[in-house]
Specification:
With 206 residues, the protein is mainly alpha-helical. The protein has one domain. Helix content is 40%, strand content 10%. The protein has a three-stranded mixed β-sheet. A hairpin with a 2-residue loop joins strand 2 and strand 3. It is globular, with a radius of gyration of 20 Å.
Length: 206
């Protein structure tokens, strides 16, 4: 499946002849039903502090994230899948910084490793499996890193990767269901409207 011949072919043949519609599902063993939010959303919000409008991820946060979603690194298919998972704290923090930057800039290129991938996301080397579930084709990235990359690129391209306009929101990175969505939830929308109403009241009393 991962022959050097095939890799060389896809690097040279850049032209797309077909439109492929497929569901994206993890290619590693994980209980996706237990996920509260998709991994790119969880990673972007992990350790966020609304008081600082930022916030780094702690070692404990990384441990919790890994238990829920799996490790970022996957065995290298070019090595026969024999290499071990090698997640590091530095890798997690670097990836989170890149995800947040791409999200807020609405530009997937902020997530790319320009040295390794150049101007494209590096999908030439993407460890990928395919399958069929019912009548639907499934795209199965071999590891969490690439799963996050695909979801992030898709949501930014579709304009659905948004940042909640409630400054008090504890998890402002969200995927919009509506074109005009500016808040991650009704709760945040109500909180901002109440704050604006109270501010107008104070001004009127002066």
């Amino acid at each position: 499946m991962y022959s050097l011949l095939a890799i060389g072919y896809y690097q040279c043949m850049r032209k797309s002849y077909y439109r492929v519609e497929a569901d994206i599902t993890p290619g590693w063993k994980i209980d996706r039903a237990a996920w509260v939010v998709p991994p790119h959303v969880a990673l972007a919000n992990l350790g966020y502090d609304h008081k600082r409008q930022a916030g780094g991820v702690s070692d404990k946060d990384i441990e919790t994230f890994t238990r829920a979603y799996g490790p970022l690194d996957a065995p290298d298919p070019l090595e026969g899948g024999a290499s071990p998972f090698r997640p590091t704290l530095v890798t997690h923090r670097h990836l989170q910084t890149a995800v947040r930057a791409a999200w807020k800039l609405r530009d997937f290129r902020a997530f790319n490793d320009a040295v390794t991938f150049g101007e494209h996301p590096g999908y030439d080397w993407l460890p990928m499996g395919w399958g069929v579930r019912g009548k639907r084709l499934e795209m199965r990235p071999a590891g969490l890193y690439w799963y996050i990359a695909i979801l992030l690129a898709r949501d930014i391209a579709e304009g659905r990767a948004r940042f909640c306009q409630n400054p008090q929101c504890p998890h402002p990175y969200f995927i919009a269901r509506r074109v005009d969505a500016t808040f991650c939830s009704r709760l945040c929308a109500v909180a901002v409207n109440v704050a604006r109403f109270r501010k107008r009241q104070k001004r009127s009393k002066r």
